[in-house]
Design a protein that fits this description.
Elements (H helix, E strand, L loop, with lengths): L6 H28 L5 H15 L1 H11 L7 H8 L10 H12 L9 E2 L5 E2 L3 E7 L5 E7 L3 H22 L6 H14 L2 H14 L6 E2 L12 E5 L4 E2 L8 H22 L1 E3 L7 E3 L5 E3 L5 E3 L2 H16 L2 H11 L6 H19 L16 H14 L6 H20 L5 H9 L4 H15 L24
Parallel strand pairs: 5-10
Antiparallel strand pairs: 1-3, 2-3, 3-4, 4-6, 7-9, 8-11, 9-10
Length: 464
C-alpha cells in the first residue's frame, strides 16, 4: 500500500526535501556569508509554504520553534506559527480515496454530513468537520498519504544532521534524543494508539472540570482515520488582552491539564504547541491532539520531585541522585553545577510562595538566555548525553512556560505544584498508572520501523 513504508517512498521524500528546501537554505546562507540582500518576510513565507507542503516531521520542528517567543526573528516566528493552525491541506480527491480505503465504499452514508474542506491541517494529517446520524458534531482526522515513508526518511536525515552537529559542537550528545523522537513519531502514525491515548486522558482528567477531552467514535476510526467529537473553542492567545482573572483561569487549567497526568499517572503530553488546545468562554481548556504522549516509570517522576526538593533545600547529594535516576551520567562536580543552572531556572517559579509570572524578566524569550549559558558551560565541562526520558519533559516545561508568559498569568505556582506532589508515593503511582493504561488499552511497546519492502512490520508485543 502507498501508505506503508517503502524504499520508493523514502527516495521520493529525499527528492522533495532537497527540491523544496535547497534553494531556501542557499539564500539564507548567502545572506549570512556573502552579504546578499534577503527579503526576510518573503523568505519566511516561502519557508512556511515549503514546510507545510512537505508535511511530516520537518513541519513539526518548525512548530516547536514557533512556540518559544523570540527564539526566531519575528518574521519567521509569525509565518511558522501559522503551521499550527493554517497548514496547506490536501484536496477532495485525497479525502475521498482515504475515506474509501478506511471505511469502505459508500462511506459518506455513515455520516449525516461531511465537509469537503478541511477545518484544520497539521503535520501528519488534516481534520474535517462532520455530523453523525445521532446528531453529534464530529472531527475526522485523516492521515496524509505515505507518512510512514516520510517519517523514516526524515528520521534518517535527522540522524545525519545530528552526526554533523556533533562534529563541531560537543555540548550535547543527541544520540538518545534521536531515539526518543523516532519512537514518538512512529507512534503518531498509529491513530488506534492515539485513540487509546485519548481514552487514557479522559480517564486521568475525569475530575478536572477545567479540561475537556474529545470522545473517540470507535466505529468510524481506524489506524489512519480518527473520528472524535468536535469541541468548540478559540485560540488560547485570543485571551492575551483579557482581564487578568480570565488569563489566570486559563493558565491554571493548562497547568492542571499537563501536570495532573504526570504527577498522578506518570504520563505527559509531549506536544504543547498552540494548535493542540483551545479555550472556551468559561476559560476551560480543550485538549485536541494525543499523538505525542510519553509514559514514564514512576521512579522518573520521583526524580523530578527529588530535584525540586534538592534545589529548594540546596541538597547537592539529592540533586545528583535525581539526575542519575533520570539516566544522566554525572562525571564530575562541574557537570552538576551546570545542570543545576537549568534546574534552578525551570523550578524558580515553584520555589516562591507568592503570586508571580512564570518569568519575572520582560525579555520575551522564555529560557533562551539560560539555555545559551548552559550550552556554553556544557561544552566547557566536556558535554552531556541527555537521557531520552528528559526530552519531552523539558519540551513540555518550556512550551508551557512560553504560553504562560504570553498570557502574562500571575499565579502562586508554588502552592499549585505542592498540591500536585503532596503525598506522592512511587508504589501508589505504579498501581494507578497500570490500572489506567489497562482500562484505556494503551500499547506499551513503541512501534518498530517498517521494512522497506513495502510491507509493514509485525506489531511489537506489549512490554511491562
Amino acid at each position: 500500500m502507498a501508505d506503508e513504508d517503502s524504499l520508493g517512498g523514502r527516495l521520493s521524500r529525499y527528492a522533495r526535501v532537497s527540491t523544496r528546501m535547497g534553494g531556501l537554505a542557499a539564500r539564507l546562507a548567502g545572506q549570512r556569508y556573502l552579504g546578499w540582500d534577503l527579503d526576510r518576510s518573503k523568505h519566511a513565507a516561502e519557508l512556511r509554504e515549503a514546510l507545510g507542503g512537505l508535511k511530516g516531521p520537518l513541519m513539526k520542528v518548525a512548530q516547536i520553534l514557533s512556540t518559544i517567543p523570540d527564539a526566531l526573528p519575528a518574521e519567521y516566528a509569525g509565518e511558522l506559527g501559522q503551521l499550527q493552525a493554517d497548514a496547506p491541506s490536501m484536496g477532495w480527491p485525497f479525502v475521498k480515496r482515504r475515506m474509501t480505503t478506511e471505511l469502505g465504499p459508500g462511506w459518506e452514508k455513515r455520516f449525516a454530513s461531511f465537509e469537503r474542506e478541511a477545518a484544520r491541517a497539521a503535520s501528519l494529517g488534516q481534520v474535517h468537520r462532520a455530523t453523525g446520524h445521532d446528531g453529534r458534531r464530529l472531527a475526522c482526522k485523516l492521515q496524509y498519504p505515505d507518512m510512514a515513508s516520510a517519517v523514516e526518511a526524515d528520521l534518517r536525515q535527522l540522524s545525519w544532521i545530528f552526526s554533523i552537529y556533533r562534529r563541531y559542537d560537543s555540548a550535547i550528545d543527541p544520540g538518545e534524543i534521536h531515539g526518543e523522537i523516532a519512537d514518538r513519531l512512529r507512534e503518531e502514525l498509529d491513530y488506534a494508539r492515539e485513540a487509546a491515548h485519548m481514552r487514557l486522558y479522559r480517564l486521568m482528567l475525569a475530575e478536572e472540570a477545567g479540561v475537556h477531552i474529545p470522545e473517540v467514535v470507535d466505529d468510524l476510526s481506524t489506524r489512519r482515520l480518527l473520528t472524535m467529537t468536535w469541541l468548540d473553542g478559540a485560540p488560547l492567545l485570543s485571551l492575551k488582552d483579557a482581564p487578568i482573572e480570565e488569563r489566570n483561569a486559563a493558565a491554571y487549567n493548562m497547568f492542571r491539564a499537563w501536570y495532573v497526568p504526570f504527577y498522578y499517572y506518570g504520563v505527559i503530553h509531549g506536544d504543547p504547541h498552540l494548535g493542540n488546545y483551545t479555550v472556551r468562554e468559561d476559560r476551560s481548556i480543550n485538549l485536541l491532539d494525543f499523538g505525542c504522549i510519553r509514559i514514564f516509570e514512576p521512579r522518573f517522576v520521583q526524580g523530578v520531585i527529588d530535584l525540586y526538593r534538592a534545589i529548594q533545600t540546596d541538597d547537592r547529594a539529592l540533586a545528583v541522585h535525581a539526575y542519575e535516576s533520570w539516566g544522566f551520567k554525572i562525571v564530575n562536580d562541574e557537570m552538576v553545577d551546570v545542570l543545576n543552572i537549568w534546574a534552578q531556572f525551570v523550578y524558580a517559579p515553584l520555589l516562591e510562595d507568592r503570586d508571580r509570572r512564570i518569568q519575572d524578566s520582560d525579555s520575551g524569550a522564555y529560557g533562551a538566555e539560560v539555555a545559551g549559558k548552559v550550552h556554553e558551560e556544557l561544552r566547557r565541562v566536556g558535554g552531556v548525553r541527555p537521557p531520552r526520558e528528559f526530552v519531552f519533559v523539558d519540551r513540555a516545561a518550556i512550551g508551557l512556560g512560553s504560553v504562560f508568559m504570553h498570557l502574562k498569568a500571575e499565579i502562586n505556582w508554588h502552592r499549585l505544584f505542592e498540591t500536585l506532589i503532596e503525598g506522592f508515593d512511587v508504589e501508589t503511582m505504579a498501581a494507578r498508572q497500570a490500572d489506567a493504561i489497562a482500562q484505556a488499552g494503551v500499547p506499551l511497546a513503541p512501534p518498530q520501523p517498517a521494512a522497506t519492502s513495502g510491507r509493514t512490520s509485525s506489531p511489537s508485543s506489549p512490554r511491562p
